Every structure is written in C-alpha cells, then in structure tokens.
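ok here's the first one, seq then struct tokens
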Amino acid sequence: MIASKSDCSAERRQKKMTYPNSFASASAADALAFLKSPTLLARRFEQIIADRGGFIAHRVLKGRWKMEGGALVYTPDEAISTDDAAEKIKPGGEYPMIELSADATLVIEALKEGFGTPITDEKVGRERMDAVERAIARLVNRLVTDFDETAMAAVASAVTQSITGTAWTSNPKSIVKQVQLAKAKITGLRLGFRADAIVLTDEQWAGVVSELLDMLPREQRNGVESGQFINALGLDWLHSPDLPSGWVPTVMDTDNLGGIGHEDIPSPEYRPVSLGQDQVAEVARFREKNDSTTVQVRKTDVPVVRNPKAACEITSTGL
C-alpha cells in the first residue's frame, strides 16, 4: 500500500522532533505529530529522567526480579547461616551434617502506580511544544519523587544497624573514621557484604562536599563542580532530593541490599521507558473526543529490601 502525502508529512514531523534542541522552534503541527508517537514520547521521558539524575532507588536496589502471578516470593540471603562450626575430618572420615537456619520466605504483592495529564489542542495551538514539555516534566517529577520516597522509606525502616558519629563539618577526619566504621559494621557480619555507596540528601551533601574536596584528586574535584557523583573512601557518594524525612547518611552494599520487582503487563498502548538496560517506567498516549491528548505514565515496580544488614546508618553527623 502506498503511503499518503499526509502520512509522509506526519512521519517527517515526527523525525524532526526526535531531539529536544528542535523543540523551541517547533510549530503546533510539529507538537501534535510528536504527541501521535508513543515511541517519541518514551524517548523524551528517558531524556528528562536521565537529566534529572534517574531514580536513586534503582541505583541502590540493584537486584532485578520478574513478578509472576501478581507476586514476588523470595528468601532473604541473611537466612543462610548456621550455628555449627566446621570440624576436622580424618582421611576417609565422614563429613558432619549441619543445620541451616530456617528459611524465612517472604511474599510481596505486585503494585501498579501511575497518572496522566490532558493536553488540549487549544493549549498546543497557543504554546506549541512548550505545552507538551511542561506536561512531561510534571509527570516525570511526580513519578520519580513518589517512587524514590516510597522505596527509600522502605530502606530506612528496614535498616537497624547504626553507629553514632560526631559532627562532620567541625572535624573532617571524623568523616573518614565514621565511614570506615560503618563499612566495618557491614563486613564484620561475615555474610559476604561489601559496602560500595553512601546515600545522603541534597542538603547533607551540600554540608559535607567542601570537606570531601580536600580528600580528592583534582580530576574528581572537577566532577564535583559539574554535578557528577564521586567516589571517595571507597564509596560512591550518592545524593537525592527525594529521600524520606529523617534520612541520615547511610552506607550500603548496593549489590546485596535489595532490588526491584517488576510485573510485565501486556498493554499494547504502552512503550517502555529505559535508562541503559533498566526499564524504569512505561508511557502511553490516548486521543480523546474532547479535542485533547492524554499522556499517561505508569510504573509496575515494587522495591524489595532483601538484606537490611547490608546497610548501616551514621547518626549524629550534624548534617
């Protein structure tokens, strides 16, 4: 079948709107053509989420599990322990049998969260691509904030290990000592955990970054100035504005702390929103009868804190 001129024109407009640097000069027709493409919408969501720094929860909960039958069943790794010690064995002797701790199987129910926003044709005609950009930005900000606050609140409530520190801003050496003590608290459990990150609020990061600068080589100082995360004292220093109230600096093993359970829902209208190999959301668009287009985003992910002992809080830092 030969494509019509109108179809070819829409396709050209969609290709034109692939990159955000052309948005400022976009016409109303360009904006409507963009809204017709779920693929282009998903790509723009990816760009804005990446510019925002992504989800802190996806950075610190690195496990990825598919939820089958509406639930995730798992056993915490911390249940793999025994009170029996190894014994010496004579040549040809029998190996003694040991009893492992009872497995504490847990079940987490699947969860779908999402929201949408209408974009009227009048708004597109008056504001062109700006109307679409602001709608996407609102959805992204709400999506990231809601999920990160929920996930990191689960982390904060699950972690019970802590050390009592002293003010970091008055004595930079206390930062080194307390971070190393928190790491030792985790590794000292002998469960194979190795701390690789510390998570702070943006305000806590602002309070400690000047002290950290003196510990870093010049090339890493440049990274701090450009807003990048840094590695110091053997840890990635991560910070976010979307942490729950009362959060304290927390050292953690992000490979073992937990993960994200994801349920695949076969809705043909949705397109995946991904950062690298990690799917973080889905987006769809629906043309309405009242001269508008609804852009809708959903997240079918559930945070799972599998090993609370893989983290340690540092209290009384004064941050």
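and now the second one, same deal
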Amino acid sequence: MKKSFIYLTKAICLACIFLLSAASFGQTVLINEIFDIEGGELDSDSLGVTDYSTLPAGWEVNDCYSSKQNYEASAGDATRSVLLKNNDSYFITPAVDAPGILTFWVKPKEIVADGVLLVEKSIDGEDYIEIGSVVPTDMENFVEFTFIINDPSTAVKLKFRSATPGIEEAKYYVDNVILFEDETPPSSINNLSTEKDFKILGNYVDNFLNFKTKSNFGRISVIDISGRLVMQREYSGTKSLDVSQLNSGIYFLRVKDSFGVHTNRFIKR
C-alpha cells in the first residue's frame, strides 16, 4: 500500500512538471474561428438566409456559403465551415498587430484542374499580396495547412479565396482558422544555436531526425528555406522526428523549451 502511494505521488509530480513545462512555451491566440453560423449564404447582402450577425466582429465575407461540413466530422458536432463556392468568393480576417503562425483546415468540394486556394495578406490597408497557396486533394477529410505570417505591423489582414484559371471553378470548405502569435519569427533562423545548447545528430537526414537538447519537453518546428512552417508538434522525452514526408532540401529545425529557443539547419536527402 505504501509503495503504491509513493508511485502515485511520483506520477502526479511528473504530470505537474509536464504541464508546467508545456505552459512555458505556450502561444497567444490572435484569431480562433470555427464558423458556427446558421443558414446558407454568409454574404451580408443575403439577409433572411443567414444570421450574418453571428459572424465575429471584424470579419469580411463575400459570396460564401455556411456549410454543415466541418473539420471535426464527428456525430453531433454542430460546427460548420465556410464554403468558397467560386472565384468571387472570399473571406477576410480581422486585423492583427503581431506576426504569427497561421493554421487552417481545408477540404475540396470537388477536384478542379489547376484550382488552388490562395492565402493573401494586406499590411496597413495596402493591396492584398499572395503569401501562399494550397491544393487540397482529399475529398473525404479536412487537411490542415500552415503558414508563417512574419509581418510586425499595426494591421495585418488575411484573405482566403479560390482561384481557377479555367471555366469550371473550384469550391473549398475552410474551417478552424487559428493564428498564434509567434515570439520568434523565422527571420531568426540566421541566429543558429551553438552546439552546446542544441544539436542535430547528423547534418543529412533520411527518414528520422534525431536531436539533443537539455529539456525533455518542448515544441519542435520545421521551417523550409523560404521561411514556411511545414511541420510543428510537441515532444515529450523522445527527441526524434519523422521527416520522411518532406521533399529533399535544406530545412531549419527550431526547438522551443523551458531553456529558450534553439534553431539549426539540416538537409533532407
């Protein structure tokens, strides 16, 4: 009985340590929207079809539908998604004042040749410029995509729209748009950590990347040479990352833990 109590106490202590460690590298949420909006059209001109007032303040929507499709896809889940139904469809986030890591979930309604979902940004009211595009091909499941928004500014807005050069227009469900404030934007990848603080075991990586750091808990991010965040997850104990799905090229591994932020480069073969 006494031994059981000791083991239980140790387990509780370890759990507390993990939670405290995890909190030390938490990120501030700037935008978090799952589009739980009733009805059909989201367009502000279609009064009586949708309760447009349920959309949070600061969002702009044009010619979109509120769909019952959602990224959770679980029974009884009442949340919805925005459906970009043609090349005139778009929605725009409220303005934010800090750089961040953008994640969102997408599923195509149908596959259209050359169709893409564009993500654009406007800084301080200037024209929108493209920061990236995605081509979702899984019609059964929502897929998560990630971009780094590295623009310290007084007003950065993000615009999502479909773009198709042909006659047939692509339609995309978009849901769970989240923007985390990133305290260490990708421009810091030039300030590589010393071997004392952080080490990648081997400069060339095939399938699994192994690294050494002083902390057993943290968040790991993989950034490509253009500064785009391509992978991110928490680690606990195991300091190995499956990178088999990455294309060959140069990447940066960034680790954020209770000792700080460490970055080093590696080459995926």
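notes on #2: The domain at 29-181 is CATH 2.60.120.260 (Jelly Rolls). The chain has two domains: 29-181, 186-268.
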